[in-house]
Amino acid sequence: MSDADTENTNENIVLECLLESPPEKVWRALTVPELAAGWLGEPGDGGREPAYEILDTEPCSRVRYTWRDEQTDAPDTLVTFEISPAPDGNTWFRLTHSHCALPRLAANSNGAPTARAA
Questions:
Q1: How far apart are alpha carbons 36 and 34 in whole angstroms?
Q2: What is the pTM of this model?
């Protein structure tokens, strides 16, 4: 990495830098689970659930993850990775970690709960 800038605005942590790899390679590193572990750590270490999960993607442009701290009951947060082509085959990279709380979904969240009268 080079030219890295970090800022903390409105409770967001933002990191921007130039990566000396092509966007396609960076995209794979962010979205292929075996490769993402190199960026984000191994999900499920010690038998625990993954600390992150992909919410949505815009191919070769943006991927958003939920992020949870398994050591606390803190709500999930949002991590967004944005990439774009840069000169000489490099990649502009922006990571935003938003501290806005995301509600945790129930393990079985197939739909709205229903209740029956007794």
A1: 6
A2: 0.70
